[in-house]
Design goal:
Blueprint lengths: L9 H18 L9 H8 L3 H7 L3 H20 L9 H21 L4 H26 L4 H27 L6 H17 L2
Length: 193
């Protein structure tokens, strides 16, 4: 069981970053299924007790690591002014997911065992961002809450699905072209009542 560490403590941040970096290095070398906590702690030059002070298991570390990589990509692509209709935000999210997908497949030597984790992590992060934005754009009441949740799911899964298909193909078109082609379709989903 994970003990409660203050994640904001500079030492805890440094330790968690060391563990994430160790996992990223190991994922470039071997399958996630063959990586043990001992491998991670040896690479990070930490002991197992320290690992368990921060993470319950390697799956929790993987989830946080993938999430951090996606958040970095999103921070680089989200415009300062997302505009009134949200199209700049959606475009930025799509490009961020393209960047993230390319980066994770390059840096982590992505194997099929990571596909489900990548997908789940991306959809979850996108859903939260889109839901928060839609809640700001539309007045909230109980009747509309479920509608916004459904819209957020459709949009987040659409973005991820489009990027996944693009990344599995030859990637002959630039990410920007992909975003421009998909943007009107996704925006139509946002504007629907």
């Amino acid at each position: 069981m994970t003990s409660y560490v203050n994640k904001e403590d500079p030492r805890a941040k440094k330790t968690r970053r060391s563990l994430r970096n160790a996992l990223i290095e190991l994922l470039a070398e071997k399958e996630f299924s063959s990586i043990t906590i001992q491998h991670i702690t040896d690479r990070a030059e930490l002991n197992r007790a320290t690992f368990y002070g921060h993470f319950q298991d390697k799956f929790e570390l993987l989830d946080e690591t993938l999430g951090e990589l996606l958040e970095e990509a999103i921070r680089r692509r989200i415009p300062a002014d997302p505009g009134d209709d949200g199209s700049a935000l959606v475009r930025g999210l799509m490009l961020a997911v393209c960047d993230w997908h390319l980066e994770t497949t390059r840096r982590l030597n992505r194997k099929l065992t990571l596909s489900a984790s990548l997908e789940a992590n991306a959809k979850k992060k996108l859903y939260k961002i889109i839901l928060a934005c839609l809640q700001q754009l539309e007045p909230l009441d109980i009747r509309h809450t479920r509608s916004l949740e459904i819209k957020s799911t459709v949009i987040s899964w659409s973005i991820y699905g489009i990027v996944l298909q693009w990344s599995e193909q030859t990637r002959s078109e630039p990410a920007e072209t992909l975003a421009e082609q998909a943007l009107p379709l996704i925006m139509a989903g946002i504007r629907t009542p």
